[in-house]
Design a protein that fits this description.
- The complex is a heterodimer of chains A (49) and B (299).
- With 49 residues, chain A is an all-alpha fold.
- Chain A has two helices and no strands.
- In chain B, helix 3 runs parallel beside helix 8, helix 7 crosses helix 11 and helix 8 crosses helix 13.
- Classes of the chains: A mainly alpha (49), B mainly alpha (299).
- The interface between A and B is large, with 39 and 59 residues.
Chain lengths: 49, 299
């Protein structure tokens, strides 16, 4: 017997919500700031300095 | 399936740590890939890291939020939280089981023969405290005279940072040895604690401390890809309890926030087709057994 496919909405809503957050971050120029941070060594984060 | 998972885990280690020029450059990777979010816990100050750590980046954005608002920038962490949320909503803690380098490290340590001990259940709540306090509240609230906070989780706790960045950077840049102090030895002690604990208990860091796992776990019930319990096929034999590395009773809590979806219960324990993988409601990897009759239902 073929199983009935009942799509779930919750994951779609969550994906759309976080996609909007992600796009808002891009619009605000946050990726540039993230890159700047990731390019420098965080000495206190790794327990040095 | 376990061999496939180990291969996928190893592949992810090399995908998020793909810069092998560091012995010559003696510093970290500084290319454009670092705008991509690492799905698992992987320190972006690791010399080989090619992606950013979502926990590290989120703390850095929050600790400098006053400064960025004063300068007219609105770096509120939406890009990082959006990236983490997209991963969580799609995969939940599948990421912990399949794509986290520090998870693989703990699994390998657990293979060392020794006495094996369970992780006390109440300790599993600690990671939510670390997520809320050490990743969000403390970096926002405790600031210096310049209005800058500190990345509390990375600075005081994260053993992945010590393993992947602290120790390698001291080897690559020996001049840094003059700057080490109690902070470094505190982090070394925490790393050693988790190394020893991982030998005797399964994934103790993931279960008690990891804020990223805590965040992804919140999605386990409503994620796009999830494990599904088929009660009509379940005999309540408890075989799934015995193989679970996270100590879950899958038949009782199929959407547990602790489940890392390693699929051991489905592929190594259940012989009755009571566990399957589903995507947005559509069953995949179902061993398609017909519903069985439970002993109580048999004539």
């Amino acid at each position: 017997m073929k199983k009935k496919f009942t799509p779930r909405r919750a994951p779609m809503l969550l994906l759309v919500f976080f996609l909007l957050l992600f796009l808002a971050g891009i619009a605000l120029g946050e990726p540039t700031r993230v890159l700047e941070q990731a390019w420098s060594i965080c000495l206190s984060c790794i327990g040095i300095g | 399936m376990e061999t496939v998972r180990k291969l996928v885990q190893t592949l992810w280690v090399f995908l998020v740590n793909g810069f092998w020029g560091f012995p010559w450059t003696r510093t970290i990777y500084q290319g454009p890939l670092k705008v991509i979010c690492s799905p698992g816990l992987n320190c972006y100050s690791c010399p080989a890291a090619t992606t950013y750590c979502p926990l590290g980046s989120l703390q850095q954005l929050l600790l400098s939020i006053r400064f960025s608002l004063e300068t007219g920038s609105y770096y509120l962490g939406t890009f990082v939280v959006g990236s983490m949320g997209l991963l969580g909503a799609a995969f939940g803690r599948f990421i912990c089981g399949w794509a986290c380098p520090f998870g693989l490290f703990q699994e390998l340590l657990y293979k060392i023969p020794s006495v094996k001990l369970p992780v006390p259940k109440p300790l599993t709540w600690l990671k939510y405290g670390f997520l809320v306090l050490f990743v969000i509240i403390f970096p926002l609230v405790f600031v210096d005279e310049f209005g800058l906070g500190a990345p509390w989780f990375c600075k005081y706790l994260c053993p992945a940072g010590t393993l992947e960045a602290g120790i390698p950077m001291l080897i690559l840049q020996p001049d840094l040895k003059s700057t080490i102090g109690w902070l470094y030895w505190n982090k070394i002690a925490i790393l050693l604690l988790f190394v020893v604990w991982s030998i005797v208990s399964s994934r103790p860091f993931c279960r008690t401390t990891c804020p990223l796992g805590a965040f992804y776990g919140l999605f386990n019930r409503h994620r796009l890809i999830r494990l599904q319990h088929n009660p009509q096929n379940c005999t309540q034999c408890g075989a799934c309890h015995r193989v679970c590395p996270m100590g879950i009773h899958f038949n009782e809590t199929p959407h547990s926030r602790e489940c890392i979806s390693c699929l051991k219960c489905m592929t190594q324990a259940c012989n009755f087709g009571a566990i399957s993988v589903e995507v947005a409601g559509y069953s995949l990897l179902d061993n398609a057994l017909p519903a069985i009759k439970k002993p109580s239902e048999q004539p």
